Amino acid sequence: MSELLDPVLNFFALYAGDAAALSTAFAWSAAVIFFRQAGYSVSPLNLNIFKSCIASVLFVISLMIAGGPWIPDLSWNDWLRLAVSAVLGITLGDMLFLMSLNRLGAGLQAIVDCLYAPFVIVMAFVFLDETLPATALFGGALVVSAVLTAARLKSIESQAERRTTVVGIAYGVAAQICVAVSIILIRDLVRSESILWITSFRFVTGSLLLFPIFFARSHSRIRDVFRPGPAWRPMILGAVLGPYLATIFWLLGFRHTMAGRAGIYNQLSTIIIIVLAAIFLHEPLTRRKLVAVTLGIAGGIVVALSA
User: Fold this and answer.
1) Can you tell me the distance from the alpha carbon of 173 to that of 35, in angstroms, rounded to the nearest whole number?
2) How many CA atoms within 13 Å lie on the side-chain side of 100?
3) Is 237 within 8 Å of 34 (Cβ atoms)?
4) Domain residues for 91?
5) DSSP state of 226
6) Do the Cβ atoms of 114 and 270 come closer than 8 Å?
7) What is the pTM of this model?
8) Does a structural domain hold residue 4?
9) What average pLDDT values come out for the chain (307 residues) when binned by 10 residues?
10) Distance of alpha carbon 273 from alpha carbon 281, whole angstroms
11) Which of 238, 194, 163 minimizes the C-alpha distance to 68?
12) Does any domain span residue 5?
């Protein structure tokens, strides 16, 4: 029996990282569609609080099951960097992402998200003195051209729609900058500490910091955020698939396969989101968008291979 199972187990062990990285793309793509559906009736602030709290609870439960450390021995500088990373990545980054998603739709937002990989490499060059390969610059240029192609303002007749598109892209770019900086800030900690604990800390901290913003800006009550309603199902599914499962798959992918391979698999989420948005959200699949997707995917692959 063992002789029959060994080849199967070896196969899964060999391609576990690839499977996890590919699962990241599918899980995140589905989550984006659910967040877009919820965004029709739920504000980005309320949705961010909801999904961050759900993800925080799931990560804390996972940490309890794993029996990881609750208070690791870190310096004050490390704690400060973790807190700033949580603010940039969860509190601000996710908020800006949802604001962008509401204005651009899932398809165009997916193309803007291609900027993440070039931004990470640029931030590593600026803050960590890492080399900036020419191929990475070329890939970044392809991604930028993809965003400009997808959002060609001359094709938009309404002035209001043009403004919405510009603002949505600005929010999306700001979101990717926040997320890129948040990761670069704690790169050494990700390598030395428990990834599950760091993720749990970032989500819990980022969620807690959302509440002062909610009380200062929202006229609704906090219990309204968690009250069952029409958007209850997509909010829960998005929270479980995106911040929780996609994050776990993403970490497993980078742990068990080469970073370049994982990055390429992750970048497939752009294509998946475009297809799902056309099927479930009835977003138009124009020739210009297909060209933009091609440029974005090509740029993402070039950047991933440069890492």
Assistant:
1) 18
2) 24
3) yes
4) 17-306
5) T
6) yes
7) 0.85
8) no
9) 46 66 89 94 90 93 82 88 92 94 90 81 77 77 78 64 88 92 83 82 91 79 79 93 89 68 74 88 83 81 71
10) 10
11) 194
12) no
